[in-house]
Design brief:
5 strands, five-stranded parallel beta sheet, 344 residues, 51% helix, 8% strand, alpha/beta, Rossmann fold
């Protein structure tokens, strides 16, 4: 396939966002096979690694250097945990060098969107593509930042059945390489945490679709599994791409690894119903019946506070800067759109 390169134009930048483990990697990797699209991520640029600009909305030299230091640690393979090669075969060192080149061309003052655009333009240049897609699932929480920074951008939003997501989330710890790592990770893998996690993303997805109906396309993992080619055709049409048969991408997602998973147990179903029942029904999913034994339910209730504490303890390691500031921004990020969606 021959790429349609327009080196004189800044490449258009679109985004894949949504619930983790819901097909975002599959969609992004499939798009990377298109002759026009260069795919990279996960930058977390407008999310948990966002560097706040100065009062005038721009970065000076110190803010830009902070961005450079954070972004040069990113890269497709390193941030997705996917063992497949990075787009274009890029290694972590190569991506860091790419960031250095892109940021080094900028002069301050510069706006945050200009920095990500510079990085995406360098990705497109090196892959000889005319357009770029960035994939960071949790950017769905910060979509107003992306939407205002890139007025022409479109967002492919991936999503998943809540119960199957919980089963996937709870099983992730078993993939850790050592027994000690699995033991330390276990307190975080609680059905309550999975339910809270899913509900948070469900709310963000719901608000994205309500606030940006013409700029968002919802892709459910169930549809990917049942009709992968139809999904890819719809995504290409939504992004206004020349249609290409992207066959051969099925199974490229980490959510598909290891074959079929065990269904969620009764305790997991009970927590999901209690925490996210309204949200899952609004999202078009049927509430399942919980068949949890009394001893297992009691044990889950007793361990829930420990799991919540373990989750809180993870935040400082995941977020640069002030964890309290991040949580506050996370809680208030959609405050302006709540009344638009719920009429309150």
């Amino acid at each position: 396939m021959t790429a349609h390169v327009r080196p004189e134009a800044e490449p258009r930048l679109d985004f894949v966002v949504g619930l983790p483990r819901s097909g975002s990697t599959w969609v992004a990797r499939a798009l990377g096979r298109h002759p026009d699209i260069a795919v990279f991520g996960e930058t977390s640029f407008f999310g948990r690694l966002f560097v706040p600009p100065r009062a005038d909305g721009t970065y000076g030299a110190s803010e830009l250097e902070r961005v450079r230091c954070l972004q040069r640690t990113r890269g497709w393979r390193e941030t997705t945990g996917d063992a497949s090669p990075s787009p274009g075969g890029a290694t972590a060192d190569a991506y860091a060098a790419l960031v250095d080149v892109a940021v080094g061309r900028l002069t301050t003052p510069v706006r945050p969107a200009q920095v990500l655009s510079a990085i995406s333009s360098e990705v497109a240049r090196r892959e000889r593509k005319s357009r770029v897609v960035e994939k960071t699932p949790h950017h769905v929480h910060w979509l107003p930042r992306l939407a205002s920074s890139y007025p022409d951008a479109r967002f492919v939003v991936t999503f998943r059945d809540p119960y199957e997501f919980a089963a996937s989330f709870l099983g992730l710890g078993r993939r850790l390489p050592t027994r000690m790592a699995r033991a330390l990770d276990l307190p975080w893998r609680h059905p309550l945490v999975a339910a809270l996690f899913w509900r948070s993303y469900a709310s963000a997805v719901e608000r994205a679709l309500a606030r940006y109906p013409d700029r968002t396309l919802l892709v459910r993992l169930e549809e990917i599994r049942e009709r992968p080619r139809d999904v890819l055709a719809a995504v290409q049409a939504f992004l206004e791409l020349p249609p290409v048969d992207l066959a051969g991408t099925e199974g490229a997602n980490s959510s598909f690894a290891g074959g079929a998973r065990s269904p969620p147990d009764g305790v997991t179903v009970a927590w999901m119903n209690a925490v996210s029942g309204r949200a899952l029904r609004r999202s078009g999913y049927e509430q399942r019946r919980a068949n949890a034994s009394l001893p297992s339910a009691a044990l889950s209730l007793l361990t829930a506070p420990v799991s919540v504490a373990a989750t809180a303890a993870r935040i400082p390691a995941l977020v640069p800067g002030s964890p309290l500031s991040y949580v506050r921004r996370w809680r208030l990020r959609w405050a302006a759109s709540d009344s638009e969606l719920y009429g309150s």
